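Allow me, if you will, to draw on your knowledge of protein folds for a short while. The matter concerns a single protein, recorded as an amino acid sequence and a row of backbone structure tokens. Kindly check, if you would, that the fold set down in the tokens agrees with what the sequence suggests. You will find the record immediately after this paragraph.
***
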Amino acid sequence: MVATLSFLGKELAANLAIEKPLHVYHELGSSILLSQNIILNNNILIRSENLEALKFLHISHTKFNIIYIDPPYNTGLKLTYKDNFKSPLENQDAWLCMIYPRIILAHKILQENGVIFVSIDDRENANLTILMREVFGINNHIGTIKWRKKNKPSFLDKHLGSVIEYILVFAKNKKKLLKLVGEKSTEISRPVLNFTNPISNRILLAGTKAKCKDGVYPKGMYTNRTLSLELKQEAVIKNGTLLQSTEVSGKFRVSQEILDKSVFITKTFGLRRSILESEQVQRHATDDATLNFESNEDAETQLKSLFNGEKVFDFPKPVGLLKHLISMYQTENENEKILCLDFFAGSATLAQAVYDLNFIKQNKYLFCCVQSDEKINKSVNYNGLHTVADIAQQRIKAIEEKYKIFPRCKIFTTKSQKN
């Protein structure tokens, strides 16, 4: 039995997720209306309140492979997302009422083989986990990733220094989600002999690379540790290369074909083979992102570099973290486009992560970022930026200008539906 969470306003919050959208969206500077076909074939920024945008995405029957969100944490500060509740709510209830309908809609627009990543701090980790298990099902809770957001705690932390945040990972349907993968293995070579294999003969082709000293190596037995290799004819090494093809005998574990493609002679005149690119396996993804991952400090530096060193946004997520999450996802068809959504886009880190990945993976990903025209801090004075959506749009433009190879992201804004 799945545990449920009770909070003031829950029923009304759930009802918000089934209301029809009040708006359609038109492309900035034109009368073109946003549609499923446009989303499936372009990078998109929707300048809109995200609950309305989610309702629209739902009725447009658009489905996403990956959803990543970094919602505002319940820190006791005033929430921007009021959602028309008529009675005042406590911070806890208000935050849950804000996130609940958005999670319901996120579930509806996620592909059956899709995955959602949700960044959260320790204040709401427990509540959000229960809420998401209620919506997605406990069996679809893949796990929770720990991410080290900074190297040192703040001096403002009174008791425990807070350096860890969490990323909740849920599948739409765990049975249809392929294994989430991590980085490729760092293994660069493997042995070619195995103690239990029978003795067989192979040919070392002329041109085989050698790490041993140049010289003439007479025929005979050469032993490395417990494995022996018999050289049938003398071998001549010059400038790190075997000059003529030579027959060898040993307990080989690989075929002549594999040997021809990848074998090399070691410093001690043994044999190993290089790992072929096709053999590079990706490790299983883990729930530990505390080591060797970019931090909040890195994220601030990345964003400042696009705005002439000026700080324009608080607490952005690092690009490397989102690239890591996106790269975990696999599809059966390697040529399939992977559609990514962030409906709390903020400074549009997701967009930059997608552009960076596409630069090396040949446009494998598309993004849809949703960000409202929330007013930004008055202290920010960069080229007329007034809202968070302005920051997102400017960041996307800066990345496009950096690469100069991607089609322009399409910008859409709200237009009221006429009855």
